[in-house]
């Protein structure tokens, strides 16, 4: 493969935040206030562990979660982008780095028919315990001050590139498609050959604009904002023509 293509999941591949989506499986499709009030900035993973424990207590089962995940819509243009990548799969190595969870991502991508596109998926471990409760763990620990306690995407991407280099796989360019503040962190490490595709008007996009204002030239990658992932497909198509 000539190119590495990195995707985020929530509000990038899918058009929602899947952690919010699963509340649709809760009684009355709402969470009680006492659970919602336990949320702390940077500790979303721990918060979701409490949400899932509550849902387990309420009798929400694996099948209920699966149905919700399978029905979360893809973002505009995402099927077009995935079809383009399927046709050109020998040129792209595709990975997914997400602060959602493995079970949810697999359910959604299998239902959409695009699971096999991804060489590797990095996300928080999740599964069902003996009681049938949906459980969630942190992905790793790290020292980055900008990212949530359970995941730094920059660390994952850097380690992945180093591991592939040891396997003698070097990429001409890296493409990064994301939307959130935790996607901005890894995109700062991209070089001038690479391209960052932030979703228009989302935190990653705003943060690239702010950095450009404060430190012109510090953000090295080419920035290509998108509203529809079909725009990403067109951009990649043009690169292949050159």
From TrEMBL:
Its cofactor is Mg(2+). Keywords: Hydrolase, Magnesium, Metal-binding, Mineral balance. GO terms for biological process: bone mineralization involved in bone maturation; regulation of bone mineralization. One of its GO terms (cellular component) is extracellular vesicle. Substrate binds at residues 19, 99. It is found in: Extracellular vesicle. Belongs to the HAD-like hydrolase superfamily. PHOSPHO family. This is Phosphoethanolamine/phosphocholine phosphatase. It comes from Steatornis caripensis. The gene is Phospho1.
């Amino acid at each position: 493969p000539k190119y590495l293509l990195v995707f985020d999941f929530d509000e990038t591949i899918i058009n929602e935040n899947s952690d919010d989506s699963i509340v649709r499986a809760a009684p009355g499709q709402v969470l009680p206030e006492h659970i919602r009030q336990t949320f702390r900035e940077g500790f979303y993973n721990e918060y979701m562990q409490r949400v899932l424990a509550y849902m387990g207590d309420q009798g929400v089962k694996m099948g209920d979660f699966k149905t919700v995940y399978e029905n979360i819509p893809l973002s505009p243009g995402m099927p077009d982008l995935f079809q383009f990548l399927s046709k050109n799969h020998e040129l792209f190595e595709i990975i997914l780095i997400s602060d959602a969870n493995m079970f949810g991502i697999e359910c959604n991508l299998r239902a959409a028919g695009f699971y096999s596109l991804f060489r590797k998926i990095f996300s928080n471990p999740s599964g069902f315990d003996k009681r049938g409760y949906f459980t969630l763990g942190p992905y790793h620990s790290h020292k980055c001050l900008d990212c949530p306690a359970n995941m730094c995407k920059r660390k994952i991407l850097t380690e992945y590139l180093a591991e592939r280099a040891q396997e003698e796989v070097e990429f001409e360019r890296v493409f990064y498609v994301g939307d959130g503040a935790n996607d901005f962190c890894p995109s700062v490490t991209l070089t001038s050959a690479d391209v960052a595709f932030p979703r228009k008007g989302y935190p990653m996009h705003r943060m690239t604009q702010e950095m450009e204002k404060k430190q012109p030239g510090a953000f090295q990658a080419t920035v290509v904002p998108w509203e529809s992932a079909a725009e990403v497909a067109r951009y990649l198509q043009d690169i292949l023509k050159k």
